[in-house]
Amino acid sequence: MQIERNTGLVLEGGGMRGAFTCGVLDAFMKHELYFRYVVAVSAGACNGMSYISRQPRRARISNIDFLAKYDYISVKNLIRQGSIFDQELLYDRFPNELLPFDYDEYFSHAEGFEMVTTNCLTGYSEYLTETQDRKRACDIVKASSSLPFVSKMVNIDGVPMLDGGIIDSIPVMRAIDTGHETNVVILTRNRGYRKIAKDRKIPRFVYKNYPRLRVALSRRIDAYNKQLQLVEDLENAGKIICIRPQSPMVVERIERDVNKLERLYEEGFEMGEKFYDETIKK
């Protein structure tokens, strides 16, 4: 597959497994490899923002170094803030104080960056872009990565939103539907992986005012496994290139072991270098 000017980049989510994506994107930035169109979901959206803002290692510091320093994943956060992640730290103090985010650089490239959210009213995915408003940009990425059950909904333009991965965990069809016939897809699971758990109907008292969200949550596993199959079919047909971990994942979605995260990051960086050498440099 030829990497062209209009080739898209697709970033899967996966919580802390996104450390792999951090590594790949840092390798891309090392070689100044930037895609004009990027569609990202959940943790992929968080890491994608630092890629769009041209800030190497920023996502790695946030996901690994600062996790060790600030321990921002805890039940205490769930009780105090309604989210298992410390959202005040992640979406306020990090970008505005501790790990400054280059909004000006980001907005100069953000027109081609879409983040996936789930509309809690309709039960459908939405693909959102922001090129001017700092708060709205932060709210979108917060919504995109707000895991159901352990995070509060985030209002975007007056609409309650949650993690885009509920509906579209690997938004490769969005990339294709927007006119990008060739795509590079960064995944956070090894080839052949499938969820073995079974979908269950969500009780009516859970998200009781959002019946369509409950339906979507009741179909998550089946939808994700179908997306994994679609990705492998497109890869076999030579329509996409996938960059993924080579071994079964030992990092959990909500992972606190920084040594595991460091090894995953390094694997991602190596895979990004390999992609550049074999696909771009040759």
Strand percent estimate: 5-15%
Low-confidence stretches: none
Number of helices: 11
Q: Total strand count, please?
A: 8
- First-last Cα distance: 13 Å
Give the biggest sheet: 8 strands, mixed
| Global structural class | alpha/beta
Shape: globular
Structure description:
Strands 1, 2, 3, 4, 5, 6, 7 and 8 form an eight-stranded mixed β-sheet that branches. The two termini are about 15 Å apart. About 45% of the residues lie in helices and about 15% in strands. The protein is of the alpha/beta class and about 280 residues long. It contains eleven helices and eight strands. The radius of gyration is 18 Å and the shape is globular.
Question: What would you say about this model in short?
Answer:
With 282 residues, this protein is α/β, with parallel strands linked by helices.
Draw up the topology in text.
Elements: E1 8-11, H1 19-30, E2 37-41, H2 43-52, H3 58-70, H4 75-81, H5 87-98, H6 103-109, E3 113-119, E4 125-128, H7 134-144, E5 154-156, E6 159-163, H8 172-177, E7 183-186, H9 211-217, H10 220-236, E8 240-243, H11 258-281
Parallel strand pairs: 1-2, 1-7, 2-3, 7-8
Antiparallel strand pairs: 3-4, 3-6, 5-6
